UniProtKB/TrEMBL annotation, chain A:
Cysteine-rich domain span: 338-424
Protein name per Swiss-Prot or TrEMBL: Cysteine-rich domain-containing protein
Residues in 4Fe-4S ferredoxin-type domain copies: 60-135
UniProt entry tagged with the keyword 4Fe-4S: yes
Alphabetical list of Pfam families matching this protein: CCG (PF02754), Fer4_8 (PF13183)
InterPro entries: 4Fe4S_Fe-S-bd, 4Fe4S_Fe_S_CS, Cys_rich_dom, Helical_ferredxn, HmcF
Keyword Glycosyltransferase: no
PANTHER family: FUMARATE REDUCTASE IRON-SULFUR SUBUNIT, HETERODISULFIDE REDUCTASE
Alphabetic keyword roster: 4Fe-4S, Electron transport, Iron, Iron-sulfur, Metal-binding, Transport
From TrEMBL, chain B:
InterPro entries in alphabetical order: Rossmann-like_a/b/a_fold, Universal_stress_UspA, UspA
One family name in Pfam for this protein: Usp
Similarity-based family: Belongs to the universal stress protein A family.
Protein name: Universal stress protein
Domain UspA: 1-148, 158-289
């Protein structure tokens, strides 16, 4: 059983391992070691017997190979419509074969599975909507990723990503101290323009608890400040937890199930500890899916729900605008053609399509909003979902995947794209860098702040 | 006054002027210098890849790369590093303005010295409005000094300081800094207000009245205490032009201004930003002061 120093079946659990793996530039040694990694067929088959439930078994069995899922897949569309990109083929040729062979597959096959699972599927679940049987290949690929991860066949960045979650309980090396310090810093930096603004940490019994994405404290703390400004102006009684503040789940992308559960449990523990009436998170798609949609099942919650109602940020924002907690100055609304990216993870997966359009109705001058085609739950993945954005090994495939979103945006004729999801935001940023189509993109928070009609008593006194 | 100076540098020649000022000041006033460099800007979501700040190239940061950058900086500023009491090099990755602010806060520095604008590097400007300088100047707790080019780096101490006021709250902090600097450095201080009359139809008498009124406003707004080497001037014209003209006339080696633009959107603020215009045109370092913490 040759296990590599970096590429092996053992998750990263210490900071030393993390640093060492990070220093293997681009995963050079990691991928070399992967060529010699043995497949533990017994363990693989054992895992399948234990975890593969009737739904996936049925799906594998009843697929009629009708091909109706083909056109539903944006990766099929942008990659020359080759049969190898048909969702049903992709899953039958990987998971289907592993099951058929009872786990007796070799290294080369597992590497092909890895490439398929991480560069030919973003788990966007669009195919599931078009299959006459409702077979959701996105879910099956999520399952396959778990099997691959347990055998050590996982892209380098995601091995690190889930390692980060295990060591820091965050997708980046942000400690609890770093986080709390960042909150203090942002409150300090923002209070001059917003007198009385606070970022309350660990306040028990608040109306709403806020969680975010570790990349915000790490690189873009302005986002935390913006969230604070909107809570402040809305007069919201809110808090952030000192522990359990990180909502994202690279472990979900990686297929590190054990870590997924731990992450989500950590957020739920914060809820149990601080007893907020409700919770919400930042403008992120997969984080919401992990915490609100999948999380309750990972942690075995009997009602399939988080401990308290957990809103996506767009739900909170729409409510604040609807109830007048936040008022928009009509003269400051967006007056240029603008389009909206529907994030698969909370639009297709949770049906929040109308909520985002309600927000649009408040912040965009009538007549300027242009829908992408297709739209809402039929919208295509941004091209960077499911971890695709961050994997260097599959950068070219990812850049190709961006072309669908590029065409959709070009067809709208808009130069401004609202993308209330970190992964979509990143993909659209990369899309502009790669193809230079001359667009701008934004989260909702900065846009809304710019057009707020702020009550007199919240403005600085002296100017 | 200056015990800890943070020199934010890409290591490129365009920042040598700033480096010279930072090290000269440190030598003169016995301060320590932190040479601070943001190696790369994060990109591609959670990946380890960053865009090199200087070249825009994609690089993977590891310990080896970081050591190499440190060595580069060490050899670039070798003589200067040796000439001061104490200095250290800090390298990191991130969005430049944010990391400069983070380091300034963590190290509790008294002054940030920055080089010229690195231009419109798409690596990190896209999606984040406002220049690095504007964002640092807006949020820093300490004064921020910008040295736009070699020729603006001074050859001796500071002997002539021009303080330009717009009577804002931030200008009170900037005045305190200018006055304290003038006292400390035994320099002459000129307090200037540029009366912006563009777009207004005023006859000469009305202008004269305004000038007199503004002069007395300066005298009543600012307390010079026992400091005597100061002048009060009010000139009419476009503010940045008048400030640069005054600096030339007085052979100023330091211009002090307040920063309080809430507008970070480059399209809206950069053209109208008096401070950026002055920095681009002045032949000496420009200090922007926003907060009262370190003045």
């Amino acid at each position: 059983m040759p296990e590599g120093q970096f590429c092996n079946k053992t998750p990263i659990t210490t900071d030393e391992q993390l640093k060492a793996t990070l220093n293997d530039k681009g995963g050079k040694q990691y991928y070399e070691e992967m060529n010699h990694l043995d497949v533990d067929s017994e363990k693989l088959w054992g895992a399948i017997q234990k975890t593969m439930k009737s739904r996936i078994k049925t799906w594998l069995e009843i697929c009629a190979h009708c091909g109706l899922c083909a056109e539903s897949c944006f990766l099929y569309q942008v990659n020359g419509r080759v049969p190898e990109q048909v969702p049903s083929y992709k899953i039958q040729a990987t998971l289907g074969q592993i099951v058929k062979k009872k786990g007796k597959v070799d290294n080369e096959f597992m590497q092909m599975c890895m490439e398929t699972a991480w560069s030919k599927c973003t788990c966007c679940n669009r195919c599931g909507m078009y299959c006459p049987h409702g077979i959701d290949m996105g879910i099956m690929f999520g399952y396959l990723r778990g099997l691959l991860y347990s055998q050590g066949f996982v892209p380098w960045e995601l091995k690190i990503g889930s390692g980060m979650h295990r060591v820091y309980r965050a997708q980046m090396d942000v400690t609890m101290e770093d986080w709390v310090e960042t909150c203090e810093w942002m409150a300090e930096e923002t209070e001059e323009e917003w007198p009385g603004l606070e970022i309350p940490v660990d306040k028990v019994g608040a109306d709403i608890m806020y969680t975010c994405n570790a990349r915000e404290p790490k690189h873009y703390p302005e986002d935390i400040a913006e969230a604070a400004i909107l809570f402040h102006v809305a007069g919201e009684n809110w808090t952030v937890p000192s522990e359990g503040w990180e909502q994202t789940s690279l472990s979900m992308f990686a297929g590190d199930w054990e870590c997924c559960k731990d992450n989500v449990q950590n957020v739920y523990d914060a809820i149990e500890r601080l007893k907020p009436k409700r919770a919400t998170g930042t403008e992120c798609g997969h984080a919401h899916r992990a915490t609100v949609i999948e999380g309750p099942y990972w942690t075995g919650r009997p009602d399939g729900q988080p401990p308290v109602p957990f809103l996506h940020y767009v739900e909170w924002l729409a409510e604040a605008l609807r109830t007048g907690k936040l008022k928009i100055d009509p003269s400051k609304r967006i007056k240029e053609p603008v389009t909206l990216q529907d994030s698969c993870n909370y639009v297709r997966n949770q049906g929040l399509k109308d909520i985002t359009r309600e927000i649009i109705s408040y912040i965009v001058e009538p007549g300027y909003f242009v829908e992408m085609a297709p739209t809402k739950e039929h919208n295509y993945c941004c091209g960077g979902g499911g971890g695709f954005n961050g994997i260097g090994k599959y950068r070219e495939q990812r850049n190709m995947a961006l072309r669908k979103k590029m065409d959709q945006i070009l067809d709208t004729g808009c130069k401004l794209v609202i993308a209330p999801c970190h992964n979509c935001w990143d993909a659209i940023r990369d899309l502009e860098e790669e193809y230079e189509i001359g667009i701008r993109w934004s989260f909702l928070k900065p846009l809304v702040i710019k057009m707020l009609d702020v009550p007199e008593h919240l403005l600085p006194k002296d100017e | 006054m200056f015990k800890k100076i943070l020199l934010a540098t890409s290591g490129a020649p365009s920042t040598f002027g700033a480096a010279r000022v930072a090290f000269d000041m440190a030598k003169r006033y016995g301060a320590e210098v932190l040479v601070f460099n943001v190696m790369g800007v994060p990109t591609k979501a959670f990946s380890q890849e960053v865009n090199d700040v200087r070249t825009g190239e994609k690089i993977e940061i590891d310990d080896e790369y970081q050591s190499w950058v440190e060595e580069e900086l060490k050899s670039t500023f070798e003589k200067q590093i040796e000439s001061v009491e104490f200095s250290k090099i800090i390298t990191t990755t991130g969005v430049p303005h944010r990391e400069i602010l983070r380091a300034a806060r963590a190290e509790d520095v008294d002054l940030i010295v920055m080089g010229a604008s690195s231009g419109d590097s798409s690596a990190y400007r896209k999606g984040y409005p406002g220049s690095t300088l504007q964002k640092v100047a807006k949020a820093a707790r300490c004064p921020v000094m910008t040295v736009h080019r070699e020729t603006a780096s001074y050859w001796g101490g500071f002997s002539n300081i021009v303080f330009a006021t717009d009577f804002s709250k931030q200008a009170e902090n900037a005045f305190k800094f200018a006055l304290a600097s003038a006292k400390e450095l035994n320099a002459d201080l000129t307090v200037l207000h540029a009366l912006d009359i563009s777009g207004k139809l005023l006859d000469q008498n009305a202008i004269e009245d305004k000038l007199i009124e503004t002069r007395s406003r300066i005298r009543s707004s600012y307390d010079f205490g026992d400091f005597k080497n100061y002048d009060v001037e009010v000139w009419e014209g476009v503010p940045y032009v008048e400030i640069v003209k005054m600096a030339r006339e007085r052979s100023a080696d330091l211009i002090v201004m307040a920063h309080h633009s809430h507008e970070l959107d480059p399209e809206k603020a950069r053209i109208g930003s008096t401070m950026e215009q002055v920095i681009l045109r002045a032949g000496c370092p420009v200090v922007s002061v926003s907060k009262p913490d370190k003045v």
